[in-house]
Amino acid sequence: MDKILILDFGSQYTQLIGRRVREIGVYAEILPGDAALDARALAGAKGVILSGSPRSCYESGAPRPDPALFGAGLPVLGLCYGIQLMTADFGGRVERLSEREYGRKAVSLTAAAAGERLLAGAAASFSSWMSHGDSIAAPAPGFEVLAVSEGGIPAALRDTKRRLWGLQFHPEVSHCEGGTRILENFVVGICGAAREWSMEAYLEEVGERVRAKVGSGEALLLISGGVDSTVAGALLLKILPKDKVHLLYIDTGLMRKAESEEVMRNLRALGATHLRKADAEPEFLAALAGAEDPEEKRRIIGDLFIKVQEREVARLGIPEAFLAQGTLYTDLIESGKGVGTKAQVIKSHHNVRSPLVEAKRAAGRVIEPLDRLYKDEVRALGRLLGVSEEVVRRHPFPGPGLGVRILGEVTKERCDILREADAIYIEELKRRGLYDRIWQAFSVLLPLRSVGVAGDERKYGSVLALRAVVSEDGMTADVYPFEADDLLAISSAITNKVGEIGRVVYDVSSKPPATIEWE
Ligand code: XMP
Description:
The chain is an alpha/beta fold. It has 3 domains: about 5-190, Rossmann fold (3-Layer(aba) Sandwich), CATH 3.40.50.880; about 200-390, HUPs (Rossmann fold, 3-Layer(aba) Sandwich); about 410-505, GMP Synthetase, Chain A, domain 3. It has 15 helices and 18 strands. The protein has helices at about 15-25, 40, 80-90, 180-190, 200-215, 225-240, 260-270, 280-290, 295-315, 330, 355-360, 375-385, 390, 410-430, 485-495, and strands spanning about 5-10, 25-30, 45-50, 75-80, 95-110, 125-140, 145-150, 155-160, 165, 220-225, 245-250, 275-280, 320-325, 365, 440-455, 455-470, 480, 500-505. The strands form 3 sheets. It has a 9-stranded mixed sheet with strand order 2-1-3-4-9-8-7-5-6, with helices on both faces. Strands 12-11-10-13-14 form a 5-stranded parallel sheet, sandwiched between helices. Strands 15, 16, 17 and 18 form a 4-stranded mixed sheet that branches. Helix 5 (about 200-215) packs across helix 6, helix 6 (about 225-240) crosses helix 12 (about 375-385) and helix 14 (about 410-430) runs antiparallel to helix 15 (about 485-495). About 45% of the residues are buried. The chain binds xanthosine-5'-monophosphate (XMP). Xanthosine-5'-monophosphate binds near residues 351, 474, 515 and 516.
């Protein structure tokens, strides 16, 4: 399959570049910036994108690509640090700006841009997204300036002879006007990469890969109730004989309303024969009794999860089974390191390094069938495999579940109150067509009682906080700006139906400085 190689020099946007190229329909692979560009790395590559970086290209020890890059005959597009690096290497000058250029900035095309394929379809002046402290003071010989920023800084460059292009701005960021078109111009127009990447193609490839590894053996997957593990389960049921797939769901009692049932129903409908649900709710609630400190609660949940997991897996009596994990592409890449150096990172349930997973990994018996996919691709794959919309569209949920959304002590009663209230909140969002516009919405039960009136009496009820954020990846998040009418109606629906809740508040904090979750 044709691919675009992305060399990662540590930019916060590297993942976004990968996602955008995939959205265009071309397979994108991210490698550490200094990865050896041997025959294996270059197989199928039609072009290379150099990411940005928090570093300066003139610093000693600044990350550099394998020198083989410029002899490989492939078109190269440098973004931000990427073009600065090429400028410095080919004899131009890069300097620190007196003031960092950040945010939406207008960019204007120069006369040299006429007929330039990279900028085909771009307006004469458009709003780009900048984020740089260094800039090109003098382009390297052979480079022409195709666009400049308001401050006269080179914003787009080209060296036709060497087939090198560069942008000082970030076309991958959604705020950049026409950014995806520019990337498409490079990937398809200039590199000529075929749009061969689809979930159907992935299904075929991963099927062969997993069958080759598992052979006639068995696979075990721990289902968490989230999108990733459910899709991983559906995938295993599709690519392996159904009676070789063991699915284990540990019900901690800390899940959202009807969540466990929905996931079990889905997997059964997809043909799961060895599907077991272990009811561990009483154990979790007993262990959490009296615990109020957030870190202590997380520790209790994590430790108990490991214990229950070991016990329940042992009960299945399949010690040789391959352990499947719902690891995603983003889990394998830590900015600046890239796939390969961090490939051992484990996304274990509840974010704990469980001895079971470690032992399976040491024995080479872990399979990660989603490890090339981004979250939105997992959703698309889930749809292709017949996982319900309910599960596929579900917002992310933290491993420790309601344990970190009930502030203070976690009891069965408080779990039930929160589940009821949260189900109403989510239902209202769906009914109003808002659910899919929000990246993550949930309710938090506060450890407070506040006064209210019920008839003639003063009544002390619980306080519920609503959270709704928009985000690309959870690293940063903005508050969802509800219309006041929606918020008021949601609040009334909750207090009318859940008697224990006397007051509803809306969390208007972005991340940073707040986190998305409250604990
Ligand atoms: P924060 O609260 O750190 O959350 O801004 C960012 C994203 O991560 C999720 N989250 C967790 N996920 N285990 C998880 O699997 C956890 O302990 C955990 N804590 C937070 C959170 O829901 C949000 O999507």
